[in-house]
Amino acid sequence: MSEEEKFDAIIIGAGPAGAACAYVLAKEGKNVILIERGATAGEKNVTGGRLYTYAMELVEPGLYKQAPMQRKVVREQIMMMSANSAITIDYGNYDFGTEIPQSFNVLRAPFDEWFAAQAEEQGAMLACGILVEDLIERDGKIIGVRAGDDEIYANVVIAADGVNSLIAQKAGLRDDISVHAVAVGAKEIIELPRNVIEDRFNLTGDEGAARMLVGGTDGVLGGGFMYTNSNSISLGVVLSPEDLARQGKKIHDILQDLKMHPAIYSLIKDGTTVEYGAHLVPEIGFSGIPKKLYRDGLVVVGDAAGMCMNTGTILRGIDLAIVSGVAAARAIIANEGASDVGAAYMQQLEQLQLLPTMRLYGKYHELLGNARMISTYPNMANEIMKMMFSVDGTLPKRIDKAMLGIVKKHVTFGQIVADGWKGFKATT
User: Fold this and answer.
1) Which of 22, 67, 195, 213 could pair with 34 as two cysteines, CB 3.0-4.6 Å apart?
2) Structure confidence by residue, pLDDT tens digits, 334-368
3) DSSP assignment, residue 397?
4) Which element (helix H / strand E) includes 316?
5) pTM listed for this prediction
């Protein structure tokens, strides 16, 4: 195409960030092309499992009702695991499922395909099976992209091409991905009858559960998750590749061992694995966001911008990706025909509370990177519970002394103080 035939926006990557941006722009009548290297949108996405509904409401109120959601999450669970036991904290809040449900379990492949199709229905051009290899730059300004022998031009290019963003690197906005800034996730989707899932997770109808797993990773930094879909369970781990390499362990082996833990196996037994995948995810929250998210003619959104967050109780990525896509679209709309929309994009990220939220939880990755959090404390908690519930006919020790003995066995007083201070600093 010639420069005279240029689009208003080229969006690279048809994940949630790219699809949200394309939808909002196309709905406003903008001439948009959404480019995806996979054969279909969602083909290369295996992350996710949960979507917070407020993000979809920003795209268009009520749009979530049409989406291929799985279950609305009303049970928030944290499981602390040791070798052969587990403690599960189960918080049920049924207000989370009324009116506009707070969040849903989702399967990324069908969701992403649906979302990209919705953008297409609004008027965006969806081009799959195309790899964008380079940017076209003139006088310091990004004016288009190259894909093979083709050149495509636009007022603005939006990089939504994932955690290892080639486009952001080509634009000089970020370096090659560093091992400490990402985690590697592996996930299985395990099919089970609907009624079996509801019985095992104490659910009714379309209710769902989200369970964070602490421990069960063979001492490797990271954690696990379980999400209840309509007719399947999403089970996975998200681990430090640096720690995996240091300990000489494989993520696949850890996931398979996790499946055989008694507390997990009882929830997935007789199920059939129908999907397996692995993926890199941004790991260090606000610290992982590049110093600059734009230049003249280009903005970076979603995972490409490091917009992912782990607070220890919830994992957030899909909603942040969608919000960033909406922010980029609004900035482009407000600056009709302009290529330099970066400042407006940053203002939208502030107004939509994305950056303030990430700042608020900006130090949590330091707390969660403490090896004692994923091994020592779960083991200690399980041993305390074992002591409290064991009956063997012998005279028990004083409860306070027995509990203190267990604590001293696992950690020193100095370690407790240090970890408590680190936790306090991470939350203030």
Assistant:
1) 22
2) 998 777 899 999 999 999 999 999 999 988 888 88
3) P
4) strand 315-316
5) 0.94
